[in-house]
Input
Amino acid sequence: MNHRQTRMNAETDRSLPSLLHPAVQNATAALSLVAMVTIAGLAFWSGTPRRLADPETARSVQPPFQINLNEAGKRELMLLPGVGERTANRILEDRERKGPFLSLHDLQRVPGIGPKTIQEISPHCRPVSDTGGPSDDRLVAER
Output
């Protein structure tokens, strides 16, 4: 390349005609700066992504649904953990033949329900006593 040939450099760039009027360039630069500061501010004040609570904490914060074992239908019973269609049918049959469940542990008279199922169901029940007050040993599911 010859020394006399024009090379693109800082000097020649300045001599090129501008595509936008200098006032428009300044306004565009100012608006861009304002937009960047706004985005940065929003990102800062919105905080960093918070760590989700572990499942144990989430379960303790969110109240479980509750149903009444003595009035629930098949679909409601199937919402209980460990209770499928077959077990729900057995609960309904037992309730018709032997009467209402006086405690959560009365569910053990239903074939297919044992201590593990009782433990899974218990958060979905609230304690009640014979007089209607709370009691630790008398549990009946209530919606």
Q: What stands out?
A: Residues 128-138 have pLDDT under 50 and may be disordered. The two ends are 89 Å apart (CA to CA).
